[in-house]
Amino acid sequence: MTQQPPPAQYQAPYAPGSPAPKQGNGLGLAALIIGILAFIGAFIPIVNYVSGVLALVGLVLGVIGLFRKGRPKGLAITGTIISLIALILSIILAITYTVGFATAIDQGIKDVQATQSAEANVDVAVTYEIVGDSTDATVTYSTYNDGNFGTEQATGQTLPFAKDFTVKAGGQFDYQSFTLTGSNGQTGGDITCRITIDGVVAAEQTATGQYASATCSSSGFDN
Q1: Would you give the distance in Å from CA 39 to the centre of its chain?
Q2: Residue 118 burial (C-beta neighbours within 10 Å; 0-12, 13-18, 19+)
Q3: Strands ordered across the beta sheet of 148-157
């Protein structure tokens, strides 16, 4: 008699347990952190140009975090809102700071131009003097101011000799040059040249003897 094997016991198929739902929302958290940094940076000049880009990144991450299934939305919503506010503030304040900076530069340029214009309208007194014993001196003087050059000569002069005139300080060509030469004739003796600018002696020289020459020169108004 053949013995039958015992029937196999029924075993239910293995059903693995369902994974627990994930609790965090990393993109939402990243959006929140980036949004806060961008919000702070929006108030800092120059930095707000970069904060605008950060705010845009935070906004994108926040929106993506909102559409992730099975993830909490709180951080994503907060990060999206803060990033959006930071983006708007960055744009507005960047424009405001840029306009203010440009206005300040423009005003500074106008102030400098006004100062230069005021200085260009100031009269400066200049005196050429030749003193000495000669009764037949020759006096030569040259003046360069604001792009204009002139030279004059007087002969057979009995000293002292003086020439007073005014020039404008600071013109389009901000350079001045003054030259004065006094030469003795047969009379000889001492001969002295002197250039006085705005009440200050800018140059003075003395020579002695027949046909001796004294030459003075000065450039600019700083003595």
Answers
A1: 29
A2: exposed
A3: 148-157, 137-145, 176-183, 213-219
Query: Domain residues of the chain, as ranges?
Result: 26-117, 122-219
Asked if 65 contacts 27 with a C-beta cutoff of 8 angstroms, the reply is yes
**pLDDT per residue over 59-108, tens digit each?**
999 899 888 887 888 888 998 999 999 999 999 998 998 888 888 898 88
Average predicted confidence (pLDDT) for the chain: 82
Reported in sequence order, the residue ranges of the chain that DSSP labels E, i.e. its strands, are 122-132, 137-145, 148-157, 161-169, 176-183, 190-197, 200-208, 213-219
Q: Which fold has domain 122-219?
A: Immunoglobulin-like (2.60.40)
Average pLDDT over residues 150-164: 90
Going by C-alpha positions, the residue among 150, 156, 151, 157 that lies closest to residue 129 is 157
More confident residue, 168 or 73: 73
Give the residue carrying structure tokens 């929106």. 63
Contact present, 139 and 191 (Cβ < 8 Å): no
Q: What is the largest CA-CA distance in the chain?
A: 172
Place of tokens 């960047």: 94
* CA nearest to 215, candidates 159, 139, 147: 139
